[in-house]
Amino acid sequence: MADNPVNSPELKTREFSSDAEVERLVFGFESATISPSHFDHSAHLATALYYLEEGSFAQALDRMRSALRRFTAHHGVDVYHETITTFWVRLLHHLTENEYRAVPLWRRINLITTRWGGAEPLEAHYSRELLRSQRARQEWVEPDLLPMPFLSPPKCKI
Question: Which of 40, 69, 83, 138 has the highest CB neighbour number within 10 Å of its CB?
Fold first, then answer.
């Protein structure tokens, strides 16, 4: 697999310069040819933003859930977390609906991951104890520290 461009060191997970680079990342993720260690937080956000660009909120969340579960199962890692996944897709949806709308996808991803890509948004709304709970891993749990009004699922057609 050394000559597979998905596994090459040139595969970007951040600082994109084209939509084609984003699409390569998403292909590597969906085909599970990118390693879990290379699929970092920025790559998660980029993929979710790509899904939001391609479909509705509900479609993007469903696609992210399904793809993450396939990816983690393929690589034999049990790290899927429903609350964290849903939180980020909802936050990214809010950002793309209210800001960054007219920006090309690759640039939007760069701007959002630079501004919102740290753990701070999640930590501002959730205690570590809640996020460590089995319940939060398995199902969506509302924030326990700071409510986020936009976190209720948007009304959208599936």
Answer: 83
